[in-house]
Amino acid sequence: MAMEKGNTEGTARKPGTAGESGREVPATESVDFIRAIVIEDLKNGKNGGRVMTRFPPEPNGYLHIGHAKSICLNFGIAAEFGGVCNLRYDDTNPTKEEVEYVESIQEDVRWLGFDWQDRLYYASDYFDKLYDYAVQLVKAGKAYVDSLSADQIREHRGTLTEPGKQSPYRNRSIEENLDLFERMRAGEFEDGAHVLRAKIDMASPNFNMRDPTLYRIRRVPHHRTGDRWCIYPMYDFAHSLSDAIEGITHSICTLEFEDHRPLYDWCQENLPVPFRSRQIEFARLNLNYTVMSKRKLLELVQQGLISGWDDPRLPTIGGLRRRGYTPEAIRAFCERIGVAKRDNVVDVALLEHAVREDLNRRALRVMGVLRPIRLVIDNYPEDQVEQLEAVNNPEDASAGTRKVPFSRDLYIEREDFNENPPKKFYRLAPGRAVRLRYGYVITCVNVVKDEKTGEPLGLHCTYDPDSLHTSGDGQKVKATLHWVSAAHSIPAEVRLYDRLFVSPDPGADGRDFKADLNPNSLEVLKTCRVEPSLAGARPGARYQFERQGYFCVDPDSTADHLVFNRTVSLRDAWAKIEKAQQK
Ligand code: ATP
Ligand code: MG
Fold first, then answer.
1. Torsions phi, psi of 287, nearest 5?
2. Between β-strands 344-346 and 285-287, what pairing exists: parallel, antiparallel or unpaired?
């Protein structure tokens, strides 16, 4: 797979000519290949000028960023071309599906900013129709009940170079097939005793066409149909016919279904369906340093290796939301990576870039000290408190200003002080002056140290009373530090996240993907101090902690215990310099 920073086979959209429908449609050469197909269909008056897509999740897990790509594509295309997009659960596998997932999926789609209006469907709503369709195939001699075991069916399937072998049951009479299929439905047989198969071609070069299974016996209740059914349709059959029943014009799916398209078409061609849909495949989103398969995500959740489906380190929509991602950032990311016809891996840094860009525009700036060290300004009056004016968002004048209390006793970031500053360390050091953000220029005059370890415990400084709002008046000040007033600030817990995996391709070369988990993906800081304006901040509220990154209030917060997640750091210039120096 090629590593690409957003593969776009043309995503910029410029206005083009009006289509047959009179609607303004863009020129085909400026859009991705799926939109080009839709435009072409509109021009040709196909589907009566109608565009209908669907997002078809299987409710067997939470949605992730890959699904977001599919959601943006399906709902996005519908919206752009005056069409609609259905939300349809592909709930044909009752053993793995749960109501919890059904609910979370709707919450996530809505949160991403999309609306299926009254078109919420379930493949299970069509179980009666699908059964009727299957009966029609049997009556037409195009499906039969096979009584081979699953293993035998596999053995009969052949290989890439050898054709499959016909089942001895392939030529059962229509009457016998109808009788057996009816009895399968009535619950007369155990799981695996029989299956219904399409009678297509055991010699087809495409495995999916070698008499694929259409129905299997599963004597388990379904989360919607209860125990009404003990046979369930297979995905390919159910999906193709659900699309036809709903009148889906463009059935957009990921590349692994390309080989299933002949079967998708076969189902619609061999039954009197109300509509013929077109399946179009695109490359799924892959991100480095993470896993997206629901099976793997479930494993992490079930083994307690993370806190749950919404652990902020996960690429799930719930995880990203809790981490502080905005729907706008996720949509911008999906737009940016575009739609391709071949597989690629997108750098997770691009996702981080999207959220930085969005939060830079709208997050309020505040000051929070993550690893505090006490700083006393010796010549500042002991009982004095000044309310310094701070800008809420330099990117947005309408965000206004706020007052931040300043006093003699402060906290600054421990790492902003260095007793023996190396070259290019411009922050606080003995004898050195720096500016405090929105405040004065201070000079470090003394360091209080732990007698045993020599570790700095506190700093003494003096301030220049005339330096407020001036550029330091002749003093050489190369750094501006964030701070909080010790007495006024409030305590907070901050959770810093790193990538969940140390490898760009977890589990590559056949090793267990869990072996690649990053043991340092979560760092919890319990002694942080944040400015008082954050008191009462609501879960979900997002801020930029100046110089530290973007943070979001976690739902674990209570009235007297604030918890923040770091969404993403700001670009760290110092870390780069440090690295360069090490080299
Ligand atoms: P997973 O492989 O993670 O278990 P899935 O494909 O089984 O996912 P579904 O619930 O069947 O999950 O997916 C719903 C829709 O989302 C499908 O149309 C599928 O093609 C699409 N989709 C799933 N993963 C991705 C991805 N990584 N990139 C783009 N689309 C995706
Ligand atoms: Mg699937």
1. -120, 145
2. parallel
**b/e burial code for range 451-470 (CB count within 10 A of at least 16 → b):** eeeeebeebbbbbbeebbee
Residue among 254, 296, 317, 344 to mutate when testing ligand 1 (max atoms within 8 A of CB): 254
Question: How far from 561 is each of 3, 132, 308, 487, 523, CA to CA, in Å?
Answer: 42, 59, 21, 17, 18
pLDDT, tens digit (0-9, with 9 covering 90-100), for 327-369:
999 999 999 999 999 998 999 999 999 999 999 999 999 999 9
Closest ligand relative to 292 C-alpha: 1
**C-alpha to C-alpha distance for 432 and 275, rounded to whole angstroms:** 77
Decide if 177 contacts 138 (C-beta within 8 A): yes
Residues with CB under 5 A from ligand 2 (ion): 58
User: Which residues, 6+ apart, have CB-to-CB distance to 456 below 8 Å?
Assistant: 373, 414, 417, 419, 447, 448, 449, 450
Token readout for 72 is: 């943006």
Tell me the residue type at 153: I
What average pLDDT does the segment 142-161 reach?
96
Q: Cα separation of 572 and 194, whole Å? A: 62
Residue 131's φ and ψ, nearest 5 degrees, are: -65, -45
Residue nearest to atom 15 of ligand 1 (CA): 57
Tell me: the pLDDT tens digits for 228-255? Answer: 999 999 999 999 999 999 999 999 999 9
Amino acid identity at 188: E
Q: What is the DSSP string of 80-135?
A: HTT-EEEEEE----TTT--HHHHHHHHHHHHHTT---TT-EEEGGGGHHHHHHHHH
Residue with tokens 């799930």, as numbered in its chain: 316
Rg (Cα) of the chain, in Å, rounded?
Answer: 31
Q: Which of the ligands is closest to the CA of residue 72?
A: 1
Distance, in Å, from the CA atom of 12 to the CA atom of 338, rounded to the nearest integer, reads 9
Q: φ, ψ for residue 565 (rounded to 5)?
A: -105, 135
Annotated catalytic residue 294: yes
Handedness of CA 241, 242, 247, 250 (dihedral sign): negative
Q: Which of 294, 321, 529, 566 is catalytic?
A: 294
In the chain, the amino acid numbered 480 is T
Task: Classify residue 316 by its DSSP letter.
Answer: B
